[in-house]
Predict the structure.
Amino acid sequence: MKQIGVWAALGIWAVVCVGGALYASWQGYGGRAFAATLTTFAFLLLVTLLLAARGVAERIASRFGPGGGLFLGAIVFLVYLIYLLGTGAFGLARAGATAGLVFVPLGLAIWADGTNAGVWQDFLIILGVWVFVKFSPSHWLWPYPGGRLAYVMTVLVAVSVALASFLLVRRLKGTGYSIGWGNRWSIYAVGSFLAFACAAIPLAIELRFIVFAPQWHRWSHYVWLSVAIFLFTAWPEELLFRGLLQNCLARASRSDLAGWWTASVLFGFSHITNQGFPNWKYVILATIAGLFYGWTWRKTGSIFASALVHTAVDAVWHFLFRTM
């Protein structure tokens, strides 16, 4: 696999941050609150991208051990305090809730340090990270600007906590947390996407879950939507459900097949509250999608490849179909 290095990761980070800052400025945002929010976003995105660069996570874990994960968690919490103070939203309840969301998983990871992957602490951390993203009062935690960045910021914090816990403290092998490409990966990714489309589209139409409704006039909008889906939906979910959950399940059961199928079913059930509870149609289709994403991850050993398939599925869904 040819994996990007530190400078390439920094370049991607700079482009996203500068582009976001310019767009926000054009929308009229500015002042101390905007500066604090941009600083928080930039740091959290930097963690996400930098630890995916070649050898960075390994060097940090090797040099600092579990202390590296604790230090990263402390910096994440400090940056959140900067956000609260800069936006005038500081409160002990907010600070305390976020401290728990950051340091409880890290405490569990340190508790399990030295044990094989797949112990109960690992699954509790994964569950906690998922609950944090899915059910936490994100708009309360991130009130500025009007809660518009609440989901994005919550996801970035969750990714940072997961990376600190598993890459730096637990030093979990085989997560595939990297940005790069290998031989035959294009075949696996394109094949997985096409196979899923052939299986899922007719089923989804038959279940009256979607209807064909292309939006050709908005094609340029979907370029940016695809980038957002990749960064804030596909990438975090592939880290959680494939790089961590499927990985730990396979190690705990000593069966790649069992880990793959179980993670896919759990991925499906994680969508049961989407667009109304209980949404069994969503569960069925998400489970099928999880099987293809999990297969891609198994074949490539990279969440980057499975996240691209995940992004393609979501982008095509939004562009060519309408949910009923």
